[in-house]
Amino acid sequence: MNPRVSLTALPLLACLAACGGTSPSTSSGPPGQAPSQAKSELARTPASAVPQGDLQTAVAANNAFAVDLYAHVLKNAPAGNLLTSPISASLALTMTYAGAKGQTASQMATALHLGSAPSTTIFAGQNALDQALESRAAAALASDTQTARNDQEPAPSASDYDLHVVNSVWGEKTYPWASSFLDVMATDYGAGVYLEDFVHAADQARQSINGWVSNQTADRINDLLPPGSVDDTTRMVLVNAIHLKLPWANPFQTSRTQNAPFTRADGTTVSVPMMSQGFEGAGYADDGKAQILTLPLAGGAENVVIALPHGDLASYEAQLSAGSAALQPSAGSSVDVELTLPRVSFTSPTFSLAKALQAMGMVDAFDSSTADFSGLCPNPPDGRLYVSDVLQKAMLGMQETGVEAAAATAVLVGTGAAPGQPIVMNVDRPVLISIVDGPTGAVLFLGHVEDPSQTGE
Asked: Each residue of 393-404: b (16+ CB within 10 Å) or e?
């Protein structure tokens, strides 16, 4: 985390005079519940009103960012399991990008792989993608409910179907945040700015944000912001949270699960529960570098793509690109596969994306002397706004019945084969795993499992 300059809070009237612009509308929740909120009066743009090209542009940028970010995170990641959520990071960072100007905005566009696309295109595309993902679980539940009704079987439980993507912004209550920024948050991210007293009650604000993240991820992501990450120099925290929980389209039979050896990256072995299942007509490819299998989740939109390298995982990951088969659901032919897959459940600690983003070209944003976030507040009264850190936390669980994955990202802004015999795929060594949205191709989660017995926190 970069050093921060010490700040002194100024009265509201001085802040209004310094920032200028139109004061945002505010609303207050019941005492002890939601904080006051600064928000635009504009409604969120429905996904149906967004051109398909904008959605495709955003997905292409997000996927290129996903692979680039993952490669840079790997350089500083400790040994063991790893999971990132590039979609969570890109949503949080493009919200921040809405307030960037000049070279700061240009560098962020480079790091986010936005190319020459207008910011309005990116914001609209993110909006359409966000809303499309939000609709997946309900569609899957409706489909499975109808199938169960037709087969005269018990209806599936709604609690097993969730794909929730949500954004929030938390800002210093004495700042009149720029109306143009609030408009983008409202129309493209479905968010306003929750007003908190970062100057005098920073840790209380941190706990409020952590509580919001826990609630939005069904308590799978807790304590995203560790003690000390938010202090009296913090002026804004932009957050994205994503929670996915869906059954497999073809669940594993619990009776076939048994302990078997898994070889870690260092050559040692560990005995872990291994799930086994035969899949007829599965999407399978072998590009000479890895066996790649697509396992659809309920509804068929979301897919777990498993890439088991023939060689070592590190060499395979070093060659990943946005077009790699490991990130393309059902990129191969339909064949019969006999799969053995470890049961997995782990949660990462909170980790910083700052070094990775700086290496990707987002430099000025982290420098309190050069950052230009005047799109958030044109003339901050108590110092230049800059990104002090970008934090993420994620979890992954795979069991016989289905998959659950969750993540949250916070941007902290401070001041200062052919048919025949089944193909055997025994995932008994380090493996790359992604979760990809089939209709758009968006990479939601990307990581690897080096030790299935490792649970994280």
From this structure: bbbbbbbbebbb
Q: Does 456 map to a domain?
A: no
CB 203 within 8 A of CB 230: yes
Q: How many C-beta atoms lie closer than 10 Å to residue 129's C-beta?
A: 25
Which CATH number is 357's domain given? 3.30.497.10
CATH number at residue 316: 2.30.39.10
The pair of structure tokens assigned to 335 is 């064949």
Are 307 and 314 a contacting pair, CB within 8 Å?
no
Give the chain's domain count.
Answer: 2
Quickly list DSSP for 301-319: SEEEEEEEESS-HHHHHHT
Phi, psi of 159 (to 5 degrees): -70, -15
Beta bridge mates, 291: 286, 308
The answer to pTM > 0.85 is yes
Strands, E assignment, 22-126: 25-27, 37-39, 82-84
H or E element at residue 146: helix 119-150
Q: What is the pLDDT of residues 16-74, one digit of tens each?
A: 334 433 345 554 433 345 679 999 999 999 999 999 999 999 999 999 999 999 999 99
Neighbour count for residue 300 (Cβ, 10 Å): 15
Mean pLDDT for back-to-back runs of 10 residues, the chain (457 residues): 34 38 44 75 97 98 98 93 97 98 98 97 98 97 96 95 98 95 98 96 97 98 97 97 97 96 94 95 91 95 96 94 91 87 96 98 96 93 92 98 98 77 86 92 92 85
Residue 323 sits in which domain range? 249-344+417-449
Q: Are residues 421 and 410 in the same domain?
A: no
Sign of CA dihedral 221, 222, 223, 225: positive
